[in-house]
Amino acid sequence: MVGQPLVSISSLAQELCITPRTIRYYEEMGLLTPVHLEKMSQRLYGPRERARLILILRGKRLGFSLAEIKEMIDLYDIDRTEGLQLERAVAYGEKRLRELDEKIQEMTLLKGELLDYQQQFTDLLKKCKDKNANVAVED
């Protein structure tokens, strides 16, 4: 990664299919620190910030909060062995898995309830049609 060129915010955003505004927001949250060249009023990003941004996007996709993501990423700066970072990632991952299991249970119950209502309404509709057909025949 050494020697990789710095890239602009628009180039990085385009590469990762996000908006420059998203990158600026992550900067405001303290997740990214671009290089600011004195001669230019442009944000530039190197390999470290690109890697951090990829981790942020992965964390968001997996449902972690920005605070959790920031904590996990920042732990690397505290412990370069990655031990603390991995421990925290495992803990947050277990928490997220429990949350997903709860949501799956809720969705399964909701699906069953919806299927029950669908069957009841289908039966009622059939009875209404049968009743209307019988009334039409009698007239």
Structure description:
It is a single chain. The chain is mainly alpha-helical and 139 residues long. The protein folds into two domains: 66 residues, Multidrug-efflux Transporter Regulator, Chain: A, Domain 2, CATH 1.10.1660.10; 57 residues. 73% of the residues lie in helices and 5% in strands. Strand 2 and strand 3 form a beta hairpin. Helix 3 packs across helix 4 and helix 4 runs antiparallel to helix 5. It is elongated and about 90 Å long. The model has no long low-confidence stretch (mean pLDDT 91).
Features:
139 residues, mainly alpha, Multidrug-efflux Transporter Regulator, Chain: A, Domain 2, 2 domains, 73% helix, elongated
Overall pLDDT metric: 91
Q: In CATH's first tier, which class of the largest domain applies?
A: Mainly Alpha
Q: State the shape.
A: elongated
Largest sheet: 3 strands, antiparallel
Q: SSE layout and pairings?
A:
Elements: E1 7-8, H1 9-16, H2 20-28, E2 35-36, E3 43-45, H3 47-61, H4 66-78, H5 83-138
Antiparallel strand pairs: 1-3, 2-3
Write a concise synopsis of the structure shown.
The chain has 139 residues and is mainly α.
